């Protein structure tokens, strides 16, 4: 039985791909359908409710698709896979589904990047963030450093913007333009999808105390051929038959 659409119509052609490759992230505003937003909110609220007292090492937020059938169904959803393949090419693998909910008062996240194929840029890893109810720059907002992904550094770490500027960012320029790298705060409307290369430096601002929960989930896919490292997927889930996800669950 066909799955309900999760995305509205969008354009992701050569120009959009060039922007993603140049900047390190690409924003698709209001891409999620109203139905998808409602279903995601319900699923992410359920995952959030399971976190207190959960089993260490198998946390619901880190293995979100294994705790919720709707999140699981999106791994192999035709529109999700089309988008991932528009970025990575036809041959892809699934890596993770992680909930990134930020309730009011959440402290956010410091600067970091992730690893994959540091020695070979032919192998990409994209994170597809679904920002169900969006965010403002100063309220659980995503921050990025355009061009940082081109350094393919998996160990970018800084607790604050100032620490990043004084440390990793100091005197760094965009490898293609020579322009100094700088922090970019983002604001996005509800239903926005953000694509991000795995080596891009990114962080999250604190959620205001009186704000509601920022509902977010991220799906990771990569072009196989290099060691993906530790994936947030159990052996049982890797063997599970998920419609549409045939051939996506093995490492290579």
In short:
The protein has 252 residues and is α+β, with helices and mostly antiparallel strands. It has one domain (17-239): Jelly Rolls (Sandwich).
Give structural attributes.
5-stranded antiparallel β-sheet; Jelly Rolls; about 250 residues; alpha+beta; 6 helices
Mean pLDDT: 97
Side by side, the strands of the main sheet go 1-8-4-10-2
**How many domain regions?**
1
CATH class: Mainly Beta
Report the sheet-strand fraction: 15-25%
Q: In CATH terms, what is the architecture?
A: Sandwich
Helix content: 10-25%
Give structural notes:
There is one protein chain. The chain has a single domain, classed as Sandwich (Jelly Rolls), CATH 2.60.120.620. Helix content is 22%, strand content 18%. The protein has 6 helices and 10 strands, in the order H-E-H-H-H-E-E-E-E-E-H-E-E-E-E-H. The strands form 2 sheets. A 5-stranded antiparallel beta sheet has the order 1-8-4-10-2. It starts with 13 loop residues before the first helix and ends in a 13-residue tail after the last helix.
């Amino acid at each position: 039985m066909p799955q309900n659409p999760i995305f509205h119509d969008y354009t992701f052609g050569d120009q959009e791909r060039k922007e993603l490759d140049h900047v390190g992230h690409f924003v698709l505003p209001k891409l999620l359908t109203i139905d998808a937003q409602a279903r995601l909110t319900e699923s992410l609220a359920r995952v959030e409710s399971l976190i207190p007292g959960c089993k260490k090492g198998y946390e619901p937020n880190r293995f979100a698709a294994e705790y919720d059938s709707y999140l699981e169904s999106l791994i192999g959803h035709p529109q999700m896979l089309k988008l991932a393949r528009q970025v990575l090419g036809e041959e892809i693998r699934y890596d993770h589904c992680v909930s990134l909910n930020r309730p009011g008062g959440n402290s956010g996240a410091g600067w970091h990047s992730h690893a994959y194929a540091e020695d070979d840029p032919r192998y990409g890893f994209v994170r597809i963030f679904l920002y169900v109810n969006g965010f403002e720059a100063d309220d659980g907002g995503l921050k990025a450093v355009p061009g940082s992904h081109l350094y393919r550094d998996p160990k970018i770490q800084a607790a604050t913007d100032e620490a990043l500027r004084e440390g990793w960012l100091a005197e760094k320029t965009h490898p293609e333009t020579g322009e100094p790298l700088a922090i970019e705060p983002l604001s996005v409307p509800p239903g926005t999808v953000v694509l991000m290369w795995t080596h891009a430096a990114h962080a999250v601002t604190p959620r205001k105390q009186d704000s509601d929960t920022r509902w977010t989930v991220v799906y990771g896919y990569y072009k196989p051929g290099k060691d993906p490292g530790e994936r947030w997927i159990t052996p049982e889930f890797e063997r599970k038959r998920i419609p549409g996800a045939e051939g996506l669950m093995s490492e290579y």
